Structures are given as C-alpha cells and as structure tokens.
Amino acid sequence: MASAAQRRIKSISYAKYGYMFIAPFFLVYCFFQIWPLIYTFILSFQGNQANNGQWVGLDNYNTILFGEGMAAGAADLRGEFLQSLGNTFILWFGNFIPQILLSLLLAVWFTDATVKLPGKGFFKVVMYMPNIITAASVAALYVNLFGDSKYYFINATLMNMGLAEPIAFVSDPVISKIMVMFIQTWLWFGNTMIMLMSGIMGINPSLFEAANIDGANSRQVFFRVTLPLLQPIMVYTMITSMIGGLQMFDIPFLYHTGANFDRDLETVAVFIYYNFNKGTVEQANYGYAGAASIIIFVITALLGSFTFYFNRDKDEIAKKKQRKRAMKQYKARMKQGGLSL
Amino acid sequence: MKNMKQQYGQPKDNYHARIMAKSIAIFCVCILLTLICLVPIYILAVNATHGHMDLAKNPSNFWFGSSIGDNFDTLLGKVKTGAARQYSGSFDVVQGYVNSLLIAGCTTGLTVFFSAMTAYGLTVYDFKLRGAAYTLIITVMMIPMQVSSAGFVRFMYSLGLINNFIPLIVPAIAAPAVVFYMRSYMKSSFPLDIVEASRIDGCGEFRTFLTIAIPMMKPAIAVQAIFAFVANWNNFYTQNMILKSDKLATMPIMVTKVLGFDKNVDYGVNYLCVTLSILPIVVIYFCLSKFIVGGVALGGVKE
C-alpha cells in the first residue's frame, strides 16, 4: 500500500524538471554543433575566398566531384579531392584489417581460460597505452625516429647493421602510406582488443564449456562459437572505426618533414582543413571545404544509421510495443464500453 | 588409480604439454607486442638526453646520454644560438602546460557535470520528448567534428571568438558519448526509489541531483573524467583551427610547430619537446591505468 504522501507525489508532474535538466545540453549542442553543421551546408553553396558569401549554387560540388566548376583550377581540385577520398579509404582499410585481426587474436587469447598467461593485466595496460598519447606527438615521434636520412634513429640503426642506402620512410609515397597504416594500428589495436574482449566475456561461458566437453578444438570453438556470437560487436567496431577513419587527420597531416603536409597522405579531413585555412580566416575556401564536409557527412550518416540499427535498445522497443498494445486494448475496451452504454 | 587407467586409458596426446606450449607461444607474442609499444617511447626518452652533435655523429643510441641539461638550456633560450631562439620562441613549455591544463581541466569539469545532469534528466523524469531526446543524442554521437568544422570556424570568426578559449571549452557541455555512458550507468545502478524517498523528505529536485545522485555516480564520473581529460589534452584539430596566436598555443600545437622547422634543427631538443608533450599523459595513464583499461569497454565509443 502506498502511503498518502507517496500517492500525492505520484500525482505531481515532474516533467518540467526533465526538460530543465536536459536543456543546457541541447542549447549548447544546437549553438556549437547543429548550427555550424547547417552553416557548413549553407557555405557549401557559396563562393570561395574573394567570393565568400556569394551564392554559387552547386558550383563547389561540380568542381570537386566533376571538375566542371567555374574556378580556374577546377580539374586540379577534383583530382585532389578524389585522391584524398581514395587515400582515406586506403589508409583506413590498411589499418583496419591488421588491427582487427591482431585485436581478435589477442582478445581470444586473453579470454581463453585454459591458457596460463602471467602478467595479463600488465600486457593490457601496455597495449592500450599508445591510444592515450597525443596523436600530434605520436606523429612527431615517428618522424623523428623514421626520418629519411642517415641522421635519424631507424635508418642509422639499419645502416649500422649493414644497409647501404637510407630508406625514405617519410617521403616515399608508398612507404609513407604503410607507415601511417602502421602508426594507426599501433594507436588503436589496444582499444579494439579491449572492446572485443568485453564482447567475448559477454558470451555465456556455458557455451564454451559445452563445446569443450563435446571435444571441439580451439579453432572450432573460435569459428563456430566465438565469431558468430561476436558478430554484433564486430559490426559495431567496424562501423565506428570506419567513421573514425573518415575523420583521420592528425597522423596523415603531420607525418612529413618541412612546412607542408604530404600530398600522398592527404585524407578528406586534411582536404577540408587545408581549404578552410587557405587564405585568411575571413576569406578562405569555405565553399570547397563545405562541399567536401557534406559529402563526408552523407557517407557517415549512411554508416551511422547502420550502427544505430545494430545497437537498438531492444528492451525499450519491447516496452514501447507493450505500451502500444495496452493502449490499443484500453481504447478498444473504452469503445466497447461506450457502445454498451 | 590403476583401475581407472585400465578403464579409461592414457590421457590423450599430452594435453598439459600442449597447453604449456600454447601458453609460452602466446606469452612470446605478447612480449613482442609490448616491446613494439614501449620501445619507441623509450628511444624517444633516450634521445632526449643526447646532444645535437652527439646525435649527428651517431643517431642510433640505446642508452641515456648526459646532455639533457644542455637541451633544456636550448629549449628555454638560455644560450644565444639560432636554434635556441627558434625553439624558445615557439615551444614555451610552461605556457604550453598552462594553456593545455586550463583547457583540459575546464572541459573535463563541464563535460562530466553536464553529462551527469543530462543523463539524470533522461533517466529519472518521464516526459513526452524523452525518447526523442535520447534518440537524438545517440544519433548525433556519430557526427564527426570534421564535418561541421568549416561552419564552426566561420561562425566563431563572425562572433569574434578566434584566438579565444571559449569555443574550445563551452562546447564540452554537450558530450553525447558521455551522456550515453552515464545513462547506461544510471540505468543499471541508480535506484529511482531514492529520488522518491528524497522527495518525501522534502528535498528539491536539483538538491537531490547534487547531493544524492552525483555522489552515487562517482565511479562513472571518475572514468569519464579521465577520458575527457585525455581527449581534450590531445585534441589538436579543434585547438589548431581556433588558436592562431603563439601566446595561446597548447602542447600539441607547439609540438607540430617544432616538427615544421627545417632550419637550425637540433635533434636532441626535438626529442625533448616530444617527450615533454607526452610526459603528463603517460604519467597519469600509468597511475590510473586500472580505471582506464576497465572503462574503455564500458565507454564503447571511439573518438
């Protein structure tokens, strides 16, 4: 039995407090995120540099996608944008595949109860460590270790061991891409491993036990039990990583020597950044940057809706359905009651 | 015993030996990966203690040198060389630490407080737009910063907020991923009866949140505070597009400036700069690693 006070409290509506508690979040979000997003959309239809603020319709999209815009270097800009889009996918793919394979292997090993592994906690801590280091510093670190000439650590060490010519780890278009993939893997494999480990530990242990009793070897357990049950987490990891990959900026932007970034490593994020920094703050290539942003946004939105679909709050959906059904029944009863009256 | 062996036969194909072999192989792979993670950092620290002349002669050092004092003198501009002027002009260690700490500290405070508040609002109260608000939050979690950055910079310019910390600090109030995490934490370990009990005792809604909910959410707040601090300390992209003046430069910006030098480069000082920029984060990490590694899986969202 509820007391009188409890009943009275139940009858008070607290809804307005709910709005008050979430208001700061949404106000700030609209001001600093939603409006800049809409503004980017508007900017993508406006001119560049001296033409900032002038309406140009689809000219920017025409320029960076088809090279048919009004600007003098339209074809070059298109080449640059398409190259940056290609680079983004190459760099993402090249770091995601080794990263997921390595993380999956480690996650399976770390959660395997039969394997006796001393210092498991230490390994996890060390493997996650690269992820918390400033990406800008990581780029600086690798440039200083892998510099092109014999005055840098890796080349000097290799030449001490008998290498004749220094390797161009930073300026060679192919090797530098491989290096960026390696750095990205180095940064992220610990994070992915821990995510996958939590996924594996969420699997009912009696399934592994049953498989063991039935005489399954570890390969069979992995392919027949772990992997199928891990699928939602794998999809989630893949899509978040892909969205993260689309914004890959720090390492490709900074992995170079000298003043300018390396064209062979230019990702879409670098393209956007470079364009809205071209010129002064009041007059920059906001149009091209905006158009590239919107293209990336569309790709992200498609991927994001995927993730959303895989991560629905299933309890909430079931509850909602139940509530709807109850409401329908209630209405039907009311109708019946109304008729009988 | 003998009976059993007769009945069941020998244990099949050396089960224990195989497990041992597998464990040793896995251990070796783990040691290798540990080395790959730690050696670059170690080499960085080692080279920061070698002088420029030393490094030019032999850049391949595996043990600490004795020139760290000289490198510091160059970095702090205590000697009168071209390299010293260049480094002390763009890499002001104290200023960099102060600016980074100011930004990371303020954003962390705002992020955890307002995220806890939003999560509290979404869990405790039942209102019409609750479902829509939550859906919106987990949808916008997916929008990358880069997408709106062109509009963001232009908008901040029109408000006169370029070279100002406000565009870096205030947006921290809206951190969808943290709200998402805090909400799931509240759902699993915050009994709503407590709110009702405090109402009966005559406690106001905000006081309930401040004095009852916040202390109960301490574990979640601690984990998210660490992540928010690290993320904001490391945030090079946003800082670099808003902060153009040397006086306001943060640690990541200063490191990239050093990276861009092509004249008068002093390799020892270069290594020292990078070391200084990652030192606080690495120290914090090894002190709090238990919480961090435990919190990663729960956070579940990549930056």
What does this structure look like?
The complex is a heterodimer of chains A (341) and B (303). Chain A contains 14 helices and no strands. Chain A has helices at 4-11, 15-43, 59-66, 74-111, 120-128, 135-146, 153-160, 173-201, 205-213, 218-246, 250-254, 268-276, 286-310, 314-340. In chain A, α3 crosses α4, α3 (59-66) crosses α13 (286-310) and α8 packs across α10 (218-246). The longest helix of chain A is centred in the N-terminal third of the chain and has 38 residues, at 74-111. Chain A is flat, with a radius of gyration of 28 Å. Chain B is mainly α. Chain B is 74% helix and 0% strand. Chain B is flat. Chains A and B meet through α1, α2, α5, α6 and α7 of A and α2, α6, α7, α8 and α11 of B.
Number of contiguous helices of chain B: 16
Reading the helices and strands of chain B in chain order gives: HHHHHHHHHHHHHHHH
In terms of structural class, how would the helical and strand content of chain B be classed? mainly alpha
Seen as an oligomer or otherwise, the chain set is: heterodimer
- The level of helicity of chain B is over 70%
Task: Briefly summarize what is shown.
The complex is a heterodimer of chains A (341) and B (303). Chain A has 341 residues and is mainly α. Chain A has helices at 4-11, 15-43, 59-66, 74-111, 120-128, 135-146, 153-160, 173-201, 205-213, 218-246, 250-254, 268-276, 286-310, 314-340.
